[in-house]
């Protein structure tokens, strides 16, 4: 998939080597155990912050099904889905025993969070989010104008006050009383993956 670095690529291998030197991941709560991450994991954050990449990296190890809230919020043709239908779809997924649900849409994340066993807030700076969105390119029928609108919307993540904003995600994160972690850079994300994979190697019973 375009924009996703994989093991063996120079950039990925260099970043993962650096991540192994990071002693502590930015942690504003109880660090999620491998068991909590491998059960029902909710990942929130701005567009382009690396949520989808992180969910894929974890799911490759756990075989958890991943629900991308972008695909819930939007139809394939780029039209917005009816909000009640979108909420019902998240509810249906949230009752399952194991999943990763990831996305920027706080009004949908609010439905899943009550069932989550762990929460990750990928609070990357705008420079990293912008780079992520540009690497993603035009997809799902997106036009250049659509991309410009998305970049403007994502840049306003810190100034909005809606559920799909930094303020909204902070409210979700603060209220969550189970294992959680806030990641401030891609380096933090890499360090979390290193720690998670090491924990999973010690706990083969958590693998599916």
What this model shows, in words?
With 208 residues, the chain is an alpha/beta fold. It has one domain (10-201): P-loop containing nucleotide triphosphate hydrolases (Rossmann fold), CATH 3.40.50. It contains ten helices and five strands. The protein has helices at 10-19, 34-37, 51-62, 69-73, 83-94, 106-112, 126-136, 144-155, 166-175, 186-202; strands spanning 40-45, 66-68, 99-103, 118-122, 180-183. Strands 2-3-1-4-5 form a five-stranded parallel β-sheet, with helices on both faces. Helix 3 runs parallel beside helix 10 (186-202) and helix 7 runs antiparallel to helix 8. The longest helix has 17 residues, at 186-202. It is globular. The two termini are 24 Å apart.
Quick take:
With 208 residues, the chain is α/β, with parallel strands linked by helices.
Instruction: Report the structural category.
Output: alpha/beta
Q: How many E strands?
A: 5
Low-pLDDT regions: 1-8, 15-29
CATH architecture assignment name? 3-Layer(aba) Sandwich
Radius of gyration: 16 Å
Give the overall shape, derived from the CA principal axes.
globular
Helical residue percent band: 40-55%
Mean pLDDT: 84
Order of helices and strands: HHEHEHHEHEHHHEH
* Widest β-sheet, arrangement of strands: 2-3-1-4-5
Q: How would you sum up the major sheet?
A: 5 strands, parallel
Classify the fold: give the CATH topology.
Answer: Rossmann fold
Q: What is the first-to-last residue Cα distance?
A: 24 Å
